């Protein structure tokens, strides 16, 4: 894991999640105001994420970030 000068993981920024794209929010999960916008043609999306392989979000490196142990 590479660490920035402020001590955070450079892979995810230190929050432990990687943004992988966006998915549309289902109509039933929208607030009443957003439902009105949906009926007028607007679509709302939320980012999809996955756990960062290098950082647990608590400034601790995970096993994926550790160099392999080449014991001879």
- Count of strand segments: 2
What is the first-to-last residue Cα distance?
24 Å
Question: What is the arithmetic mean of pLDDT?
Answer: 86
What's the tally of helices?
1
Please state roughly what percent of the residues sit in beta strands, choosing from under 5%, 5-15%, 15-25%, 25-35%, 35-45% or over 45%.
15-25%
Low-confidence stretches: none
- N-to-C SSE string, H for helix and E for strand: EHE
The best one-word shape is: elongated
Work out the helicity level: 10-25%
| Spatial extent as radius of gyration | 19 Å
| Helix vs. strand class | alpha+beta
Major sheet: size, sense and barrel closure? 2 strands, antiparallel
Strand sequence of the main sheet, in spatial order?
1-2
